[in-house]
Design brief:
Blueprint lengths: L1 H25 L24 H7 L15 E10 L5 H11 L4 E4 L1 H6 L1 H9 L3 E4 L6 H4 L3 H19 L7 E2 L11 H9 L3 E2 L4 E2 L10 H12 L4 E7 L5 H16 L2 E3 L8
Parallel strand pairs: 1-2, 1-7, 1-8, 2-3, 4-5, 6-7
Helix pairs in contact: 3-10, 7-8, 9-10
Length: 269
């Protein structure tokens, strides 16, 4: 009898222990570390878990939408009459320090003379435009065909130096394309497939060879007038040393006025 009771107690105890182990196993996770594959969570027919739910739960991420500030003020720094060994390189140094891209309207015969500077302009991702081959008013404004011929000549020069990196597109008239007299020239430019770009802001460095940096900043402030898109006329010919001196203060002022710097490649966009 005692042996029977002892056996029954033993069996009962073993049953309790075995049942407890099964219950304990039931509350354990099946794996301690889950491996999440985005494909496993894609919405399939009959699935109750949609991708949007996963985004909200932080399992998947969405790319942030690109927000375009339609109220942004844009400034395009443009430099005419180069390249020159004395001024252009120093302007490029300043632009590089500020990490700013600009547009250079170059004269063809100077590009031939200083191809290394032209290459640097291109390599530092500035835009290069066509400012005729000679910049000789009497010749280029004698008739529209002379103007077109000079542009084509300059295009050939630039392509020979820059190769495929140069696509002829933007033109600036020496002295600007303003006025009824130049209407036939503007029409000829358009028919030839070019885009003519003048300016609406001045630094005043065209008024004499050595306009002081203070005067240049003042002229810029006078003509800027909080314009939404500001195309600033400056020069990088050899006689424009004071433009180099004025450039940092001009850039600092434009930054203080919340302008974004771009090349004319983005004009109107």
């Amino acid at each position: 009898m005692r042996r029977y009771l002892k056996s029954s107690i033993t069996i009962t105890l073993l049953t309790i222990v075995f049942t407890g182990l099964l219950s304990f196993e039931a509350i354990l996770p099946y794996q301690t570390e889950a491996i999440v594959d985005a494909e496993d969570f894609s919405e399939k027919p009959g699935s109750d878990l949609a991708e949007n739910d996963l985004v909200e739960d932080g399992i998947l991420t969405e790319e942030e939408p690109i927000v375009v500030d339609e109220d942004a003020k844009i400034v395009y720094l443009t430099f005419d009459d180069g390249p020159s060994p004395n001024v252009t390189s120093r302007i490029l140094d300043i632009l590089n320090e500020y990490d700013i891209r600009a547009t250079f309207f170059v004269i063809g015969n100077l590009a031939e003379r200083y191809p290394d500077i032209l290459l640097r302009i291109s390599q530092e991702e500035h835009l290069i435009g066509n400012h005729t081959y000679t910049h000789n008013y009497h010749h280029i404004y004698s008739n529209p065909q002379n103007f077109i011929d000079e542009l084509k000549h300059t295009d050939s020069v630039l392509a020979s130096i820059l190769g495929e990196d140069y696509t002829p597109k933007f033109v600036r008239f020496p002295g600007g394309s303003f006025g009824k007299k130049l209407q036939p020239f503007r029409q000829a430019i358009e028919e030839a497939g070019y885009i003519n770009i003048d300016w609406n802001v001045l630094s005043g460095d065209a008024e004499a060879n050595r306009i002081s940096p203070q005067k240049q900043l003042s002229r810029l402030q006078e003509t800027l007038q909080n314009k939404k898109q500001a195309i600033v006329l400056m020069h990088d010919s050899n006689t424009k040393d004071t433009t180099v001196e004025a450039l940092p203060s001009i850039i600092d002022y434009l930054i203080s006025q919340s302008y974004v710097f771009k090349t004319l490649e983005d004009y109107g966009l």
